[in-house]
TrEMBL record, chain A:
SUPFAM superfamilies: P-loop containing nucleoside triphosphate hydrolases (SSF52540)
Organism of origin: Plantactinospora mayteni
Classification via Pfam families: ABC_tran
Lineage, uppermost ranks: Bacteria, Bacillati, Actinomycetota, Actinomycetes, Micromonosporales
ABC transporter domain location: 4-231
UniProtKB keywords: ATP-binding, Nucleotide-binding, Transport
GO molecular function, one term: ATP binding
Official protein name in the record: Nitrate/sulfonate/bicarbonate ABC transporter ATP-binding protein
Lineage top rank: taxon: Bacteria
UniProtKB/TrEMBL annotation, chain B:
Organism: Plantactinospora mayteni
Membrane among keywords: yes
Protein name (record): ABC nitrate/sulfonate/bicarbonate family protein transporter inner membrane subunit
Domain ABC transmembrane type-1, first and last residues per copy: 80-260
Stored Pfam families: BPD_transp_1
UniProt subcellular location: Cell membrane
Gene3D superfamilies: MetI-like (1.10.3720.10)
Domain of life assignment: Bacteria
């Protein structure tokens, strides 16, 4: 079981220069086990920065961050980006193999299994340029699941897609997650999407603090048409409207 | 005025309609191929005119004759073969070393700082200087043309590759490091394919610049080869023989570029067209 611990995390870009800007101020939370956590907040509040610090691409300025797995090996991470980030000169399957440590037959079979789960079994030998944007994004999702990550990071993976494609992929993501039960940290600016997918929503406010930490206790699978889902979505939205009125200068409530 | 009631109809013609209304001979005359043929013909025409005007310019017919005589003397295969051998080794070395240094320079700012000035200096040294130096150092033999070819062409490969590597998508490199893809695999499967176009451009330069090097080193050295043979005719004041060798080698480079390099490059970029 993976445990992600973030404690008093802060990030200042261009530290020590006149352009210094503090994006994350004081972030503390912990995620353990098979939970789907969303990080929600308005554009520019530091969600991607937080995710990049967790993944190790970005360094943090102060505070602590750790990821442990009890499998007796370093924790593995998967990352689904806002854009597909595929190598255009490699076929779909070979793109998935590019990020795998093990290049053996069993790993190929696993990659094919996840490709099948996102409905692209027939496209294994296609080049990314031959797929639509939605299909490419599905390859990115399959690639992330296929490394069997202890922690799966997703950064607004559906925000570049049209509404119909995005809805289909959200349903598909719910299915795959139900089968594989990974620990997921999912970044989005869309509260409605967060409520549909998550067990827990961490709300980030501008200025880089946590505004609220909300548990979402709804049965799965969740449908957009289900009135209880819609009610909760409206309720969380209303709470975020209240945050906006507090503005940048206010102390966090949570 | 009655113009107010008149409607203006702007009817545009479709591509198929335009194509149907253009006669075939006109389409052929305005094609790219026609332009290439025209360039070749005007070159030949200018050559013939110059040879008619100046006694010391051998015309195409004479050059072909001299070439035929060289073949008959059995001079062509041996000399051409040794030039190709030296040229091939020099360009191959320049490609391998150039890619290695270029990738290093593109990936690490430390090695960029180290190699930047030497590469710039090397770029500005003309082939003739290397030819003199290597003949002085290594004497007559295969080594001086090989080293001259290598030294004149390697900086062009380095500069092209380094520029290509710096342009490799930051997003794809971030993706690779979040997944902990080993550096060797990143170089092989991400960096090299991404800079394939720059490598191809670099190798093309290497070939075009490098043949200056090989011919010059052979010219001043004495170990046989196309350059040596061209000089032999030049010293004998027989410009027909001299021109025959130059034409032979230039023709070879052009055909190599057209039918081997161009095709190899197109094959490497299959993924782009699909
Ligand atoms: N490399 C960087 N240098 C300076 N500022 C940055 C950098 N990356 C992000 N920022 C700033 O940090 C803030 C948060 O960015 P980001 O984490 O991308 O927000 P979000 O993902 O929530 O939309 C933005 O104001 C952005 O301009
Ligand atoms: Mg973002």
């Amino acid at each position: 079981m993976a445990v992600l611990t973030v404690k008093n995390l802060a990030k200042t870009f261009n530290l020590g220069t006149p352009r210094a800007s503090r994006v994350l101020d004081d972030i503390t939370f912990e995620v353990r086990g098979q939970t789907f956590v969303s990080i929600v907040g308005p554009s520019g509040c530091g969600k991607s920065t937080l995710l990049n610090i967790i993944s190790g691409v970005e360094e943090h300025t102060s505070g602590e961050i750790s990821l442990t797995s009890d499998e007796g090996r370093p924790a593995r991470m998967g990352y689904v980006f806002q854009d597909p980030r595929l190598l255009p000169w490699r076929s779909v399957l070979r793109n998935m193999m590019y990020v795998q440590d093990d290049q053996g037959e069993a790993t190929v079979a696993r990659a094919r299994r996840y490709l099948d789960m996102v409905g692209l079994a027939k496209n294994a030998d296609f080049y990314p340029g031959q797929l639509s944007g939605g299909m490419q994004q599905r390859v990115g999702i399959a690639r992330a699941f296929a490394v069997e990550p202890d922690l799966l990071l997703m950064d607004e993976p559906f925000s570049h897609l049209d509404a119909i494609t995005a809805r289909g992929l959200r349903a598909q993501l719910q299915d795959i997650w139900a089968q594989s039960k990974k620990t997921v940290v999912f970044v989005t600016h869309d509260v409605v999407e967060a409520v549909e997918l998550s067990d827990r929503i961490i709300v980030l406010q501008p200025g880089g603090r946590i505004y609220e930490d909300i548990g979402i206790d709804l049965p799965r699978p969740r449908r957009q048409t289900d009135p209880t889902v819609a009610t909760l979505q409206a309720e969380v939205l209303a709470r975020l409207e209240a945050m906006k009125e507090l503005g940048r200068t206010t102390e966090p409530v949570a | 005025m009655s113009t107010a009631s008149q409607a203006t109809v702007d009817r545009r013609r479709s591509t198929s309609e335009i194509e149907r209304s253009t006669p075939a001979w006109r389409r052929r005359l305005t094609s790219d191929r026609a332009a290439r043929v025209a360039a070749l013909l005007s070159f030949l025409l200018v050559w013939v005119l110059l040879s008619l005007l100046f006694r010391r310019v051998p015309g195409p017919v004479e050059v072909v004759q001299r070439l035929g005589e060289e073949f008959a003397r059995g001079e062509v295969f041996g000399n051409f073969g040794s030039t190709l051998y030296r040229f091939g080794i020099g360009v191959a070395l320049a490609t391998v070393v150039g890619i290695a240094i270029g990738v290093l320079m593109g990936l690490s700012s430390l090695s960029r700082a180290f190699f930047e000035s030497p590469v710039l200096v090397a770029l500005s040294i003309p082939a003739i200087i290397w030819a003199f130096l290597t003949v002085m150092w290594f004497g007559f033999g295969d080594l001086s043309p090989i080293v001259t070819t290598f030294l004149t062409s390697v900086p062009f490969v380095v500069v092209n590759v380094a520029q290509g590597v710096r342009g490799v998508s930051r997003d794809l490199r971030d993706m690779s490091s979040t997944y902990h893809v080993p550096v060797s695999r990143q170089v092989r499967d991400l960096v090299l394919p991404a800079v394939a176009g720059y490598i191809a451009a670099g190798v093309r330069f290497a070939i075009i610049i490098g043949w200056n090097g090989v011919l010059l080193a052979e010219w001043f050295g004495g170990g046989g080869g196309v350059g040596y043979r061209a000089r032999w005719w030049y010293d004998a004041n027989r410009f027909g023989g001299f021109a025959a060798w130059v034409v032979l080698f230039v023709g070879f480079i052009v055909l190599l570029d057209r039918f081997v390099l161009d095709r190899a490059i197109r094959r490497a970029f299959r993924w782009r067209d699909s």
